Amino acid sequence: MTTLLTQAAVAYDVTDGVAVITVQNPPVNALSVAVRRGLDAAISRFAADAEAHIAVIIGAGRTFIAGADIKEFGKPPQEPRLPDLIQRIEDTEKPVVAVLHGTALGGGLEVALGAHYRLALPGAKVGLPEVTLGLIPGAGGTQRLPRLIGVDATLTLITSGRPVPAQKALELGIVDQISQDSDPRTAGLVYAQHLLGQGAVARRSSEMDAPGVAAGTLDEWRGKLAQKARGQLSPLVCVDAVEAATTLDFASGMKRERELFLSLLDSPQRAALIHAFFAERKVSKLPELQGIAAREITEVGIIGGGTMGAGIAVSCLLNGLDVTLIERNEDAAAQATTTVTRLLGDSLRRGKLSKAQHDGILADDFRTATDYKALSQADLVIEAVFESMDVKRDVFQKLDAECKAGAILASNTSYLDINEIAAITNRPQDVIGLHFFSPAHVMKLLEVVVPDATAPDVVATGFALAKKLGKIAVRAGVCDGFIGNRILATYRAAADHMVLDGASPYDIDRALKAFGFAMGPFEVSDLAGLDIGWATRKRKAPTLDPRARVAKFADRLCELGRFGQKTGRGFYIYPEGSRRGTPDPEVLGFIDDERADLGITPQRMDDETIVRRYMAAMINEAAKVVAEGIALRPLDVDVTFLSGYGFPRHRGGPMHYADEVGLPALLADLERYAEEDAYFWQPAQLIRDLVANGQTFASLNE
Ligand code: 3HC
Ligand code: NAI
């Protein structure tokens, strides 16, 4: 065996006539310039190496290659370019095998498509996720894959960005074989000897026939994607690139792919989506948690089995935790069991659980009780009872009396003061807010709300719990509404003000959906239940500043029992069983009445005006939230809105969007609006300071 390190990032050695080319660029073997150069050198060496008759490319560590190095995007390109390198691999006269383990994604899978044979290890996942970063595969993926597996299968893969497991990759024809070996090197050597024994030759996917496509297929894809993409460009550009594979020869198709890739590389959407990727990873890296170990959590108690409690229970159960749920009485406990059973049944139907897992959870991992003594062994208790300080006081007193020392006592309150809740107990260091979003077993966001006295390892446990539940945790300080709901209250008020001034709720929903939100604010209110906002408004009424402008039309709907989808009427009318509402002239009548009472002459507002005001209100409040330390950095606000509030991912979050628009333009808007309503539109001092210093929100993310 000969060993030679061609470059630190790629190793080359030969064993029994097989060249083993090992990519070693932890943690995910991204194709950095050092890896590209290393691979280039290794391929040249293999071509010239008389001892080596076949090569295997493997990844060191936990994965094959997770794709291009995302950190290099937006910087000056460095040679060799990935498509050229892959072409060199494919052009090699002697056969090359890619051995896929862990994740072979993006450029990683494209390297494998340039190889002549592909072997997957059990557990491997392969995919082309570029679309999720605002890109298309840019190193031959859109040209080689359709030749290998056809147009429809390719488009399914690259327009969703979702990876497929090894077995599916085998069925599609992306890989040639699945090895039963768990070590890539051993598996690769065995497969290479097998290929040599068979006299296998270099087999190039670029030389396969161009894929056929039935008339109308691509237009169907375009129609479907235009609806789903809500303004995101890359899914539709994927279709253009794959179309090129069907109409052009391989070299021309590659040229077309390059043009399309470069046009997206320059787009603000690419910058926004890559910001989102890194922000989601950075959000859990908190200086205060450096070196702090989380507490062990296996047994969870939940108080209250309503909408949130049941959802939180299911989230815990689906992720291997043991749950004891406390309700007020036997009837409520039975009701909670019914809800949990129904939600687990949904997971079973969707294939997220096997029948055995489902039955095991219900038999062994979940129980209800009405006596708090059942929580004596709980490591963590999450309270999700009615949003009332009196009710919560009673619950926390009981928890303090019954839970073991070191148990974490968490509240899922949406708005209440968690410092006050912590002070109810004799162990404020163990009390924290864990603010889940509805439906709690689905929504990704978890706000970890940190009161003054909380111990650092309790905060670390909140983050560890989020990871265990497959959620993204954001640290929030204590204030009315924390990060998300506090900002929501402000931009929601801005939407109500726009309605009073002339826009209809339907205009506003339409404009914001065109901007990229999944739903408009009035549709969201109808879905959540208008009674929730009504209760909050009543609770806040006594503390309302007399200068605040308050719209009454939503209260009027509630007084009429119109609570939204659940009552069939809210801002929209919902025909029996439908979740899609139609506008209601009666609602417009109520709004007209209110305008007349206030002496307002309604003004028409176009989509741009609506979006500008809505976003200005959101960003202005977000800047205050950052300045007060409620959110640690602007990126924490971005992640909150991307994972909890349906903010369009291709716009990167409100703070990234603000930088994109430009803070001077935003400040000019705020000052103009402040001339109409100085109380509501007071520009945040942080925005003034950033503009004065020529800085962006991004500068505060470091
Ligand atoms: N480039 C640079 N850094 C990357 C990276 C990449 N492609 N993929 C992951 N990383 C970094 C992460 O930022 C993180 O860094 P940190 O520790 O400093 O925070 C570290 O690697 C580990 O990543 P994760 O925390 O995400 O680890 P997981 O084990 O949870 O997930 C993964 C691993 C599934 C590979 C996930 O990281 C992932 O999805 N990565 C992105 C894959 C991707 O999108 N590839 C396509 C790139 S575009 C491309 O290839 C263009 C081509 O067509 C030309
Ligand atoms: P809900 O009304 O659906 O459920 C509350 C449950 O608590 C009921 O089942 C009730 O029987 C039970 N309960 C009341 N007092 C109790 C007690 N002393 N002991 C045991 N159980 C008791 O309310 P929901 O929507 O689940 O909200 C619960 C909490 O979660 C509130 O603090 C709310 O602000 C918060 N929250 C709600 C969200 C939502 O979208 N509904 C989102 C995030 C947080």
UniProtKB/TrEMBL annotation:
Gene3D superfamilies: 1.10.1040.50, 2-enoyl-CoA Hydratase, Chain A, domain 1, NAD(P)-binding Rossmann-like Domain. Pathway: Lipid metabolism; fatty acid beta-oxidation. CDD domains: crotonase-like (cd06558). Pfam families: 3HCDH, 3HCDH_N, ECH_1. SUPFAM superfamilies: 6-phosphogluconate dehydrogenase C-terminal domain-like, ClpP/crotonase, NAD(P)-binding Rossmann-fold domains. Residues 300-476 form the 3-hydroxyacyl-CoA dehydrogenase NAD binding domain. Signal peptide: none annotated. Keywords: Fatty acid metabolism, Isomerase, Lipid degradation, Lipid metabolism, Lyase, Multifunctional enzyme, NAD, Oxidoreductase, Peroxisome. It comes from the Bacteria. Residues 481-574, 610-695 form the 3-hydroxyacyl-CoA dehydrogenase C-terminal domain. One of its GO terms (molecular function) is NAD+ binding. InterPro entries: 3-OHacyl-CoA_DH_NAD-bd, 3HC_DH_C, 6-PGluconate_DH-like_C_sf, ClpP/crotonase-like_dom_sf, Enoyl-CoA_hyd/isom_CS, Enoyl-CoA_hydra/iso, NAD(P)-bd_dom_sf. One of its GO terms (biological process) is fatty acid beta-oxidation. It is found in: Peroxisome. It catalyses: a (3S)-3-hydroxyacyl-CoA + NAD(+) = a 3-oxoacyl-CoA + NADH + H(+). In the N-terminal section; belongs to the enoyl-CoA hydratase/isomerase family. This is FAD-dependent oxidoreductase. It comes from Parasedimentitalea marina.
